[in-house]
């Protein structure tokens, strides 16, 4: 257990919250549980997160942001938009599969939390489609893609590839030919952007 | 209630099973429940369906087949493959939305049943992607589409449009711009096929 004399930051509270979720599942992430895990008074947790709902939303957002952060770099790279799009979609799929596969119980716990925190999920999707919009706009600027409305096209690409990032499909991600399925959809989408 | 003197066909039993499901939810579709609803001995139901599992699988298959049957005609029409593909995808989306919207409780009940009957669902998906393969092969034959492997491409089209037929997305189907989302994905997919 982290000694309670360390400065109690929001990040430290969220780390402890994730540890509580990992050990005990979605029901146990309350301010009292987290304060107990940190060995601090619950008043000191309340100073950072005023309600149980705020704490749960923040830990959900932190979990979602870990995925987007790993993709931001790819979206911003100054190189061929088609290669960048393929790499970005592959990185998104890899990140989601890793989350689902490395710790299935924590993944299931976070699925409960995302169901409760639709605003955090909406912001996450806006962030991801914003990154896609940037790549598609760059492609339209160089003439690699024909999109006239990059934001609408980005959303269509996000929807068309849902099988490879929507957690609702996690049970299909260990199918033996899932990589071939992914490649077939990405090829179709990329050809659609080029045309 | 249907008089028990009528000939007891498999179809009559399945109709009664669906009625039992509609009234009482997924737990109640047992042979005994259905025999009671028909006013017949359960022995006479067992003559058609030897187990509760067989009865539940057959009623699930019947429900899924109602969707595919409405699409077979479109897949087989001797006309422009691109228009046929667009109409087929729109008809699939319409059929699924209608099922979800007209009777949400029965839809939820059938979702429980499809979860139990993965083989019936697999056969349904094989049927649908087979219809798509036919349209895409026709398009490749006329030169409208460039697909070299129509079956693989058909599966990619099915996956890319999952948001508009997978029952897991039913809660999104009354979003105000869902038609625009559908058009954007279908346009992207059709351009990908043409290229």
Automatic annotation (TrEMBL), chains A, B:
Keywords: DNA-binding, Transcription, Transcription regulation. It comes from the Bacteria. It comes from Streptomyces ossamyceticus. Residues 30-49 bind DNA. Residues 7-67 form the HTH tetR-type domain. The keyword DNA-binding applies. InterPro entries: DNA-bd_HTH_TetR-type_CS (IPR023772), Homeodomain-like_sf (IPR009057), HTH-type_TetR-like_transc_reg (IPR050109), HTH_TetR (IPR001647), Tet_transcr_reg_TetR-rel_C_sf (IPR036271), TetR_C_27 (IPR041478). PANTHER family: HTH-TYPE TRANSCRIPTIONAL REGULATOR RUTR (PTHR30055), TRANSCRIPTIONAL REGULATORY PROTEIN (PTHR30055:SF151). This is TetR family transcriptional regulator. It holds the Pfam family TetR_C_27.
């Amino acid at each position: 257990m982290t000694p309670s004399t360390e400065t109690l930051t929001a990040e430290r509270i969220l780390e402890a919250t994730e540890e509580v979720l990992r050990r005990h599942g979605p029901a146990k992430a309350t301010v009292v549980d987290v304060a107990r895990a940190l060995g601090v008074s619950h008043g000191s947790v309340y100073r950072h997160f005023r309600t149980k709902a705020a704490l749960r939303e923040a830990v959900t957002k932190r979990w979602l942001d870990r995925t987007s952060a790993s993709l931001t770099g790819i979206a911003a790279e100054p190189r061929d938009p088609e290669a960048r799009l393929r790499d970005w979609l592959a990185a998104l799929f890899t990140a989601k599969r890793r989350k689902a596969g490395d710790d299935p119980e924590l993944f299931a716990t976070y699925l409960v939390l995302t169901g409760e925190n639709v605003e955090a999920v909406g912001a996450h999707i806006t962030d991801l489609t914003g990154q896609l919009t940037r790549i598609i706009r760059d492609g339209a600027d160089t003439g690699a893609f024909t999109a006239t409305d990059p934001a609408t096209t980005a959303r269509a690409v996000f929807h068309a590839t849902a099988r490879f990032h929507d957690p609702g499909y996690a049970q299909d991600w260990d199918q033996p030919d899932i990589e071939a399925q992914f490649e077939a959809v990405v090829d179709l989408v990329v050809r659609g952007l080029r045309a």
